[in-house]
Write a structure and sequence with these properties.
By secondary structure, the protein is α+β, with helices and mostly antiparallel strands. The protein contains 5 helices and 14 strands. Strands 1, 2, 3, 4, 5, 13 and 14 form a 7-stranded antiparallel beta sheet that branches. Helix 2 packs across helix 5 and helix 4 crosses helix 5.
Length: about 290
């Protein structure tokens, strides 16, 4: 499947901002046997005074830029064409939960995709007893790692309500868990913590999701948003799988990967600092257009 993507992120400030330095992680990745970035570009307005490119620990291309002069708005636009390949359905050769620690210990690598990076606490995710108890109530140790991942994905989807007004980007996983409401970031963080509490390595995936309008309704331009789902390590034979608890589906041809990390802090699309005071407003619009 070939997609054209467009993303616009616009920030407006009550008082002109200056001395702004930001880092962007917006461009979809090229992944072997998964997806290919055909072409892409990012534009920033006003034009940055400084700009540089680098690759972070998790091997994501990132762009750092600085704006010295005062500005009332910041407008960021990304356009890309991405080829997404169909993925074979993997048979479950993952180990039982009781046998998973041995397989993890057999992994000596500390490369970015090593399961060791995705077991403990991370900047936004600290183990919470309530979420651990919830995870243990959903599964048994007689299940395989993959069965547990699918069971938790389905259970979170059933127990939680999608509500874009219930949480913010700074809502903690425990707060969202107690509300049983939230958005894809909340569903993803809760599932990661639940899996880690059982000793199953799990991480965060940031990207785009093609959405299909209801029958008889036209697709609204710019109505989509960036999406998040979960990456789960299911042993040496299977490796990593990806599940979307917001929709209770495996990540497939409608999911386009931008970045992998331990939690949202590793994959924030735009992050930075600036000099200003007063409030600010942010608007995001995404289009995911299938070409064939």
């Amino acid at each position: 499947m070939l997609y054209d993507l467009s993303l616009r992120m616009n920030y407006s400030y009550d008082v002109p901002a200056s001395g702004a330095r930001h880092v962007m992680r917006l461009m979809p990745l090229s992944l072997s046997n998964r997806q290919r970035l055909v072409a892409g570009s990012i534009t920033v307005s006003p034009t940055p005074d400084e700009q540089s490119h680098f690759v972070d620990f998790f091997q994501h291309p990132a762009t750092s830029f600085m704006l010295r002069t005062p500005h009332e708005t910041l407008d960021i636009r990304m356009q890309a064409r991405v080829q997404v390949e169909s993925q074979p359905i993997a048979a479950d050769f993952s180990p039982l939960l009781a046998d998973l620690p041995e397989e993890i210990s057999d992994v000596w690598s500390l490369a970015p995709d090593s399961p060791h990076h995705f077991l403990g606490d991370s900047p936004r995710l600290t183990q919470a007893r309530e979420i651990g108890d919830y995870a243990r109530s959903c599964v048994t140790r007689q299940l395989t790692a993959m069965q547990i991942a699918h069971a938790l994905c389905a259970r979170i989807n059933k127990d939680f309500t999608y509500d874009s007004d219930a949480t913010t980007v700074d809502t903690t996983p425990l707060e969202a868990f107690r509300l049983k409401r939230g958005v894809c970031q909340d569903f993803t963080h809760v599932m990661i913590l639940a899996l880690r509490s059982l000793g199953i390595p799990a991480g965060y995936v940031s990207g785009f999701l093609r959405t299909i309008p209801p029958p008889g309704k036209e697709r609204l331009e710019g109505a989509d948003a960036m999406h998040a789902w979960v990456r789960v390590w299911c042993g040496e034979t299977i490796g990593w799988i990806e599940l979307d608890p917001t929709n209770n589906i495996p990540a497939g041809m409608d999911h386009i990967v931008v970045a992998y990390g331990r939690d949202y802090s590793d994959v924030v699309p735009v992050i930075g600092v600036l000099k200003s005071y007063g409030g600010q407003r942010a608007v995001q619009a995404v289009d995911v257009i299938p070409l064939k």
